[in-house]
Description:
- It is a single chain.
- The protein has 3 helices and 6 strands; from the N terminus they run E-E-H-E-E-E-E-H-H.
- By secondary structure, it is an alpha+beta fold.
Amino acid sequence: MGALPVFRWRLAPDGYATRRQLRARGLRPGGQEVAAQLERPRRRRGPLVAYLYRVDLAKPVRPMTPARWAALAKANAARRICPTCRRDAGYVIPPSLGMCTPCAFPDPSRAVRSA
Length: 115
């Protein structure tokens, strides 16, 4: 394997793009190898590296099928269900809490008193 061409940050020639730049154009790498890399120097750590792909070898993004849309909707719905109370929270439950806000921070004034 030969060495990759390395370019300084923001100085890559035309015809190369990062994954995000390809996606913005409606393209994907399509199985091609990394063609080059960008390096941004930093003072106390190693450089930031971004991998570049050739635009002429990129393929169009695959379209979403109805089955993919359904699977995505099901996955997003599952992220809204609280595992503690099993209710739809109405928002995506934060992974840091692992449950909806009312379950994570119960309100003591709402607690039912047993007399």
